[in-house]
Amino acid sequence: MPAAGTSEPLIFNSFHFLVFFIVVYALYRALKHEGQNWLLLAASYYFYGSWDWRFLGLLIASTGIDYLCALYIDRRADPRRRRAALIVSLGFNLTVLGFFKYFNFFADSLQTLLHAAGLQADYATLHIVLPIGISFYTFITMSYVIDVYRRDIEPCHNLRDFALFVAYFPHLVAGPILRAGWLLPQIVKPRRVRPDQIRDGLWLIVWGFFKKVFVADNLAHVADAVFATNGHASGLEVLLGVYAFAFQIYGDFSGYSDIARGTSLLMGIELNVNFRFPYFVRSAPEFWRHWHISLSTWFRDHVYTRFLLVAVRGKWFKKRETASAAGYFVSFGLMGVWHGLEWHYIIYGLYHATLLTGYDAFTRWKKRHPHRFTSKTWAIVARLITFHFVCFGLWIFSGHGIIKPLPAEQGRVAAMSSILRRIDDEDILQHFGCFGIVSHHEAHQRSAGFPPHDVHGAQIKAGVF
C-alpha cells in the first residue's frame, strides 16, 4: 500500500530504506542512550508513516491508552477496578482491529445476502484499508497490559520508552511479536554495540536477503504458474506447486525475520529467533515450536493456557485429554477468524487443531509400544510425513481448490501477493504460526521473570504444549 503523500513506503529491500537506515545508524552511534531512544522513536514513526501517515494517530492512540491502563492497573489493589482497566485496553484494541479487519467482509456479505433475496443493495463503500502492522502492535500492547495485570512484569513509567517498545521499526510491520519482559529492558538500559553483534547482524541481513531474493522470489514463479491453471494441472504439477509455495512462504517470512533481527542487532538490541528450520521436524507440535515462534507463544499463553485454566477450574471436562483437544480447537478456531473471515482460513486452523489432537492420541499409543518408533528410519519417515501434512495445510490456507473467496477477499489476496513480493506483507505473515512450547523462547521468558502458568499449583503441560 503506498503511503499517502510520500513517494514510496520503507521496504527492507528498497534504496529508500537503505538511505534511511544509514542516516539513522550514523546518528545512533554518535548519540548517548537518551538521544538514541528519541532518535529511534522518531525514526520508527517516520518508518510507519511512510506506509500511510494517516494511521500514525491510530498507533499513537493505542500506545497512549495501553500505557495509561497499565499504570492504572499497577496502582490499584481493587480487583474490580483493575479488571475494568484491562477491559478498556482489550476492548479498544480488539474493536479497532475488528473494525479495520472485518468491516469490508461484513459489508460485502450484507450486499451479497440482499442480492440473493432480490433486494437492491446500493450503498457507499468505505473501502476500509487495513493499517500495516496493526495485528502485530495490538498484540504487543495487549500482551503488555495482560502481563502487568497478572503482575508478571512491572509497568514502564517512561512514555517515550514504552512508545519505542511498541513502534520499534525493525519488528513493527511483521513481527516478531516481542514480549515486554524481553524487549523493554533492552530499551530502558544503556546499550553498547559489540563487535560480535555487528558481525552477526550483517550475516543475518545477508542470509535474510538470500532467502528472500534467491529462494522465495524464484519459487514464487513456480507456485503462481501452477495455481494459475485453475484446476487443470496434473497431480505431479500440483505437488510441485505446493512444494514451491511452502518454501516460498518460508523464504519470505523467515527472510524478513532475519533482516529485522540483523538490523536490530546492529543497534545492540536482540530480537527473538522466529523461525528454526520448521520443515525438518518430526511432528506437528514440533513444527509449531519452530514456525513463527513469537506468534505461537502469544496464542499459547493468552488463549490456549487461559482456556485450560477456566476449563479445569470449572470442571468442564472429565478427562485432561478432552480439555486439551477442546483448547486446540478453540484456539485454532479463533486463530482462523483472526486470519480473516474466510472458510479456507478457518478450515486451515481446524485442520491443525485436528493434527495436534491426533498426535496427542498417537503419543499415548506410542507410550504403550515404546520400542516401535526408535529407529533412524522412523525418524526420517516421521519428518517426511510431517512435512507433507504441513504442505497440505498450506495448500488449504492458500484457498486454491478449497473454497473460492468472496470478491472483497479476492482483491485483498491480490494486494497481499503484490506486497509479499516486496518482503513485508503484514497480513499474510500473521496467517502462519500458532502454537507450541518453545524451549528457546521459554528460556528468554524465564530469564525475563515470567513464571509458568499453574492450575491449582500444578504446571499446565496438557497435550503437546
Secondary-structure map with pairings?
Elements: H1 15-30, H2 33-52, H3 56-75, H4 79-116, H5 134-149, H6 159-167, H7 169-172, H8 180-188, H9 195-227, H10 235-265, H11 284-288, H12 293-314, H13 320-339, H14 343-367, H15 376-398, H16 407-420, H17 426-429, H18 439-447, E1 454-455, E2 458-459
Antiparallel strand pairs: 1-2
Helix pairs in contact: 1-2, 2-6, 3-4, 3-5, 3-6, 4-5, 6-8, 9-10, 10-15, 12-13, 13-14, 14-15
Description:
With 465 residues, this protein is mainly α. Helices cover 68% and strands 1% of the residues. The protein has 18 helices and two strands. The chain has a two-stranded antiparallel sheet with strand order 1-2. A hairpin with a 2-residue loop joins strand 1 (454-455) and strand 2. Helix 3 crosses helix 6 (159-167), helix 4 runs antiparallel to helix 5 (134-149) and helix 12 crosses helix 13. The longest helix is centred in the N-terminal third of the chain and has 38 residues, at 79-116. The chain starts with 14 loop residues before the first helix and ends in a 6-residue tail after the last strand. Mean pLDDT is 80; it is low at 405-465.
